[in-house]
């Protein structure tokens, strides 16, 4: 059985590291992005099962990414936790 994939997007590397550790310990596969452009690229390539998204990012904010995800037919089903 494949692990469910979670994409964690946070520019604070320590927070991303902690989240990754907790989620991996709980049995999830974890992808990490530290900026909006990388997050969008990863979303389109990997299509994770869940997106954990920081609001304040250096290049795009979490609202911009959410709007992009919800407008994209191939991504809109992905749940988002901000």
Structure in words:
This protein has 82 residues and is of the alpha/beta class. It is 41% helix and 20% strand. The protein contains 3 helices and 4 strands. The protein has a 4-stranded parallel beta sheet, with helices on both faces. Strand 1 (5-9), helix 1 and strand 2 form a beta-alpha-beta unit. Helix 2 (36-46) packs parallel to helix 3. The relative contact order is 0.22. The model has no long low-confidence stretch (mean pLDDT 96).
* Low-confidence runs of at least 5 consecutive residues: none
**Portion of residues within helices:** 40-55%
Anisotropy-based shape: globular
Largest sheet descriptor: 4 strands, parallel
Output mean pLDDT: 96
Radius of gyration: 12 Å
Query: Could you tell me the strand content as a percent range?
Result: 15-25%
Terminal-residue CA separation: 28 Å
Assembly type? single chain
Spatial sequence of strands, sheet with the most strands: 2-1-3-4
Helix-strand string: EHEHEHE
Number of helices: 3
Q: What class do helices, strands and sheet pairing give?
A: alpha/beta
Please give the number of β-strands. 4
SSE layout:
Layout: E1 5-9, H1 13-25, E2 29-33, H2 36-46, E3 50-53, H3 62-71, E4 80-81
Parallel strand pairs: 1-2, 1-3, 3-4
Helix pairs in contact: 2-3
